């Protein structure tokens, strides 16, 4: 029981002291809360607490670029961390701004301060390339990424400064876009006009390389200092006006560009014929300056990166405008420029990279301790900077300007748009893409939209203009000997070369003032060789050379030549000698011996065939044997001159004679042509046919003075002591005719001019050594060179060049043939006429066979009787009688009339004569029959005396 009492007493004590008990409970609760808060703090220290990543920003807030970029970076971080997707991120990027102004020293000092005192993990925003050059080295030393959205590092390559990252499209791709645009319009020369600062140190080589790749030259570069006054700019513009090129690529700051274009407009260089292309950066001048820039830059074409106009971008521009207007109430900007969008994407990328780097507290500790003597040497590094650098290079996301992706420490370039300033507006006229190059469409190949060029014209400028108040100073060689080519008289050039040049100049669609100056000493002597004259063009002492200037490889090293306007090549000029054959038997040479014999044989053969066929029916082929032999030869050989008078009465004979006369005609004409060739072509032959013969004999060689011939002749192994120079065609003639030189070696145009006067005594021989003929010399890259070349082609095609050459050579090109090309005549052979002889022989034989067949057919009765008697002597006798006895039925009217005049009342027919022959033959051969008995033959004779002739019946009547 006492225990219960004690317990009861204890339970009651709290009741008796209630205020004190509640105080104890409150103390316990407070202690628990403290413990809980401590546990949360420890948990946060273990990795759940947000970690700040310090990033330094170096900008010049006195410039609109600095202000716009800073506003965009602030908005980027606000938008990034307000995004629900990033609410769980453990890192927070914190920006530390340093307003340094344009000084590179101030920027470097600010960088050291940020790295040493703030211990930033990255630095963003050196605006200029000069500032970036120092900060890039600082980044390399400390392994801290230096990120720029508006500057390049000109002094070193990206591999040499791996901690310098550029988050804007690089100038190399911009150079390719500009080169592609220039190639589109086929401009062959461009002058870059740039600000003389570090920002263009890398741009100029990139541009020159891209232009060279498309075949465009950069012969001159105009640099203007950023602090240049009006007088300096005006002097630079005057130097541009003194050049032929009218295509300019401009890259400079906005302030300098506005001043430059204002003065260029006052100097008349914003007019028709000029082309101005602005690089990216300068195209933002219209957003910054507005109307003043548009007024002085009408017709300018520019390139700038293409940014797709998305809803996100429109929303951002609206919010940026509201924010910026509050901070800068008097601004003229209506939206963030492209560099501001790059700054926005840079800040966004840093926030992403900071989270992806998975930074720990230990990463922020200094990696080493440095007790150097300077602030720069005492700067410590940390692993956090290196992790942030690596993560930043791998960051990819869809940004305001497109896909954000770093490649080779630069933002990957994509597309550009081409803009044209027209009035108070900028219009997009096309695009540039890596795949399509310059096109009117992003996805397909299309023509550019119409561009309005300076001067308000849509006609594409040709890319060059004649310099203001420029008169071309034309050098004319001193050429006394060959004045028909070029000659200087009374301040004017005359001759073939000058006439061709002036024809081309006058045909150009624009006026080109020219002034001739002779390359002489005023005392009748030249000031030097043609090589020296050409070199004067290289030294800009002459604007061109017009004359008989041969296009040579060594000369083309210093000047550009037009296309040649004369025949090209070098040949030899030699005398010709008379090699006429004057023997008594020259007339036999046209035909070879076998042809003479063959032709004679066919003459006799044809005469015999004609005599055989005509003998029975034509009294002109009858008579004593000697007379008949004479008729055969006389008839056959008289056909050679178509003087035969014998009448042909048999159709078969006529066929054979017609074919034979055709053969004789061809044979006669061939003989005449061959004989003419022998007596004319072969009579003139060159005394020398090749230089080897001249070298072997040790003869002297002449050439034109002040020409390139000595070098050529030395290469051809001719001793220099054997070379003699001459100055005129008359000296050529004297030297060749007197034997002072064996040959003259010169260019074909000179030799043709010489032969126009001395055609019949000389000729060109030997191989043609190839050279390019005469051309006009202009300075390297002169735009007149292709213009004059096209004019030369036009003269050649419309016939004007041929007319000028006829005047030069006097038409001797066709009157004086090249004798070396004449072929030596050779005798005609039997093989050449074998076909004709076969035709006439076959025709004659066929006529003979047909005649014999017809004759035998008509006498078949008598032949049958003779054969039946079995005596071949009788058959031969009948055949002999048939051939020798005349065929009175077929006789001519003259024969009939002769018979009438002789008073012969009875004319026996061939058949009656045959019967008599048979009768007589039988009386001598048939010994079994008495002399008085009639024979069958006689009976036939008595019974069939034959019909009387028509003449006889007529006389009876």
Automatic annotation (TrEMBL):
Disulfide bonds join 759-816. The keyword Disulfide bond applies. Residues 473-811 form the Ionotropic glutamate receptor C-terminal domain. InterPro entries: ANF_lig-bd_rcpt, GABAb_receptor_plant_PBP1, Glu/Gly-bd, Ionotropic_Glu_rcpt, Iontro_rcpt_C, Iontropic_Glu_rcpt_pln, Peripla_BP_I. Residues 1-38 form the signal peptide. The keyword Transmembrane applies. Residues 922-957 are annotated as: Disordered. Belongs to the glutamate-gated ion channel (TC 1.A.10.1) family. May form heteromers. Glutamate-gated receptor that probably acts as a non-selective cation channel. May be involved in light-signal transduction and calcium homeostasis via the regulation of calcium influx into cells. This is Glutamate receptor. The lineage of its organism: Eukaryota, Viridiplantae, Streptophyta, Embryophyta, Tracheophyta.
């Amino acid at each position: 029981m006492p225990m219960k009492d004690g317990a009861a007493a204890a339970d009651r004590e709290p009741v008796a002291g209630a205020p004190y008990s509640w105080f104890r409970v409150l103390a316990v609760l407070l202690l628990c809360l403290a413990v809980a808060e401590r546990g949360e703090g420890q948990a946060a220290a273990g990795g759940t607490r947000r970690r700040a990543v310090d990033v330094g920003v170096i900008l010049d807030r006195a410039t609109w670029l600095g202000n716009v970029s800073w506003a965009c970076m602030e908005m980027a971080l606000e938008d990034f961390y307000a995004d629900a997707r990033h609410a769980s991120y453990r890192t927070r990027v914190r920006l530390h701004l340093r307003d340094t102004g344009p000084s590179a020293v101030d920027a470097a000092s600010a960088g050291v301060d940020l790295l040493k005192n703030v211990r930033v993990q990255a630095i963003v925003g050196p605006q200029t390339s000069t500032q970036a050059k120092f900060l890039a080295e600082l980044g390399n030393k400390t392994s801290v990424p230096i990120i720029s959205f508006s500057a390049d590092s000109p002094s070193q390559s990206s591999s040499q400064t791996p901690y310098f990252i550029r988050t804007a499209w690089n100038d190399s791709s911009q150079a390719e876009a500009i080169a592609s645009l220039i190639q589109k319009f086929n401009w062959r020369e461009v002058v870059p006009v740039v600000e003389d600062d570090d920002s263009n140190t890398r741009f100029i080589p990139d541009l020159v390389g891209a232009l060279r790749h498309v075949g465009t030259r950069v012969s001159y570069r105009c640099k203007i200092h950023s602090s240049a006054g009006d007088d300096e700019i005006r002097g630079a513009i005057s130097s541009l006006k003194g050049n032929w090129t009218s295509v300019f690529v401009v890259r400079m700051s906005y302030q300098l560009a506005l001043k430059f274009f204002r003065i260029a407009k006052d100097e008349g260089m914003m007019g028709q014929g000029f082309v101005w292309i602005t690089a990216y950066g300068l195209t933002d001048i219209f957003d910054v300056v507005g109307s003043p820039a548009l007024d002085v830059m009408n017709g300018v074409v520019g390139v700038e990166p293409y940014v797709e106009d998305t809803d996100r971008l429109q929303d951002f521009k609206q919010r940026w405008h509201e924010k910026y207007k509050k901070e800068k109430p008097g601004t003229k900007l209506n939206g963030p420029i492209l560099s501001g969008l790059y700054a926005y994407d840079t800040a966004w990328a840093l926030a992403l990279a900071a989270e992806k780097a998975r930074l720990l507290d230990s990463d922020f500790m200094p990696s080493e301790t440095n007790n150097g003597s300077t602030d720069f040497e005492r700067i410590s590094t940390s692993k956090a900077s290196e992790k942030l650098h690596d993560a930043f290079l791998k960051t990819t996301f869809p940004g305001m300007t497109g896909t954000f992706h770093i490649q080779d420490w630069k933002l990957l370039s994509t597309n550009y748009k081409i803009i044209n300033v027209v009035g108070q507006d900028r219009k997009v006229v096309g695009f540039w893409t890596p795949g399509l190059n310059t096109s009117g469409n992003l996805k397909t190949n299309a023509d550019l939209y119409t561009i309005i060029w300076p001067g308000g014209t849509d006609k594409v400028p040709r890319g060059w203009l004649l310099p203001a108040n420029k008169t071309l100073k034309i050098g004319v060689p001193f050429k006394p000997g060959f004045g028909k080519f070029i000659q200087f008289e009374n301040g004017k050039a005359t001759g073939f070369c000058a006439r061709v040049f002036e024809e081309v100049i006058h045909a150009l669609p624009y006026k080109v003032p020219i002034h001739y100056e002779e390359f002489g000493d005023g005392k009748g002597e030249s000031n030097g060789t043609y090589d020296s004259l050409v070199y004067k063009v290289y030294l800009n002492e002459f604007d061109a050379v017009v004359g008989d200037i041969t296009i040579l490889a060594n000369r083309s090293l210093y000047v550009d030549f037009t296309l040649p306007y004369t025949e090209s090549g070098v040949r030899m000029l030699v005398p010709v000698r008379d090699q006429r054959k004057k023997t008594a038997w020259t007339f036999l040479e046209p035909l070879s011996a076998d042809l003479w014999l063959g032709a004679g044989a066919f003459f006799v053969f044809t005469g015999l065939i004609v005599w055989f066929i005509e003998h029975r029916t034509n009294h002109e082929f009858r008579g004593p044997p000697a007379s008949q032999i004479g008729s055969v030869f006389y008839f056959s050989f008289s056909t050679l001159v178509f003087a035969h008078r014998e009448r042909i009465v048999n159709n078969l004979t006529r066929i054979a004679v017609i074919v034979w006369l055709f053969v004789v005609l061809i044979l006669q004409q061939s003989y005449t042509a061959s004989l003419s060739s022998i007596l004319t072509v072969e009579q003139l032959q060159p005394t020398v046919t090749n230089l080897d013969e001249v070298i072997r004999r040790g003869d002297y060689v002449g050439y034109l003075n002040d020409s390139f011939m000595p070098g050529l002749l030395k290469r051809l192994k001719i001793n220099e002591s054997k070379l003699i120079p001459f100055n005129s065609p008359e000296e050529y003639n004297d030297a060749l005719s007197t034997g002072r030189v064996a040959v003259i070696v010169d260019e074909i145009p000179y030799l043709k001019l010489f032969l126009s006067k001395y055609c019949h005594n000389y000729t060109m021989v030997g191989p043609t050594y190839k050279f390019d003929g005469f051309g006009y010399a202009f300075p390297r890259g002169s735009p007149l060179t292709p213009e004059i070349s096209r004019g030369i082609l036009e003269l050649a095609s419309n016939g004007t060049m041929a007319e000028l050459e006829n005047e030069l050579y006097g038409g001797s090109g066709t009157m004086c043939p090249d004798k070396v090309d004449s072929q030596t005549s050779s005798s005609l052979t039997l093989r050449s006429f074998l076909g004709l002889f076969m035709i006439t022989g076959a025709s004659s034989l066929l006529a003979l066979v047909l005649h014999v067949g017809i004759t035998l057919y008509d006498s078949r009765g008598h032949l049958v009787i003779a054969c039946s008697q079995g005596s071949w002597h009788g058959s031969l006798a009948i055949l002999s009688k048939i051939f020798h006895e005349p065929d009175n039925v077929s006789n001519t009217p003259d024969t009939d009339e002769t018979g009438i005049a002789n008073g012969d009342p009875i004319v026996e027919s061939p058949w009656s004569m045959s019967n008599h022959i048979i009768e007589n033959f039988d009386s001598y051969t048939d010994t079994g029959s008495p002399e008085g008995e009639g024979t069958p033959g006689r009976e036939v004779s008595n019974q069939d005396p034959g019909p009387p002739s028509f003449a006889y019946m007529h006389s009876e009547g």
